[in-house]
């Protein structure tokens, strides 16, 4: 994975990816772009995303594995704007509850009993998306908040 920074306007990518932020998954189907907000898990230089039976992005990935993912940490009161933009390829894989639980616990906490019922007992009808970045652009675009 090639990391492209903007000199002194970069930041620690690993710290950003450890936060429970939204990612935006960009896919293409029949020359039409699509953007899907997703939760993610970063592990071993790959992003993992859960796909449900009603999601359409796994089908788009099967048809065209080239994707982009954008992740931003934004706090307007503090003037914080950190952005990581990934380009690479994704694959649709069988569901793995171990990876899914690591992903979900980042957002919902460690106690599965307290999770929203929609996220409990996910099964093999779901899939995992494994995104492998080729490049990532890391930019700190923070500003002085007034």
From TrEMBL:
<dbReference type="InterPro" id="IPR011576">
    <property type="entry name" value="Pyridox_Oxase_N"/>
</dbReference>
<protein>
    <submittedName>
        <fullName>Nitroimidazol reductase NimA, pyridoxamine 5'-phosphate oxidase superfamily</fullName>
    </submittedName>
</protein>
<dbReference type="Pfam" id="PF01243">
    <property type="entry name" value="PNPOx_N"/>
</dbReference>
<feature type="domain" description="Pyridoxamine 5'-phosphate oxidase N-terminal">
    <location>
        <begin position="14"/>
        <end position="136"/>
    </location>
</feature>
<dbReference type="InterPro" id="IPR012349">
    <property type="entry name" value="Split_barrel_FMN-bd"/>
</dbReference>
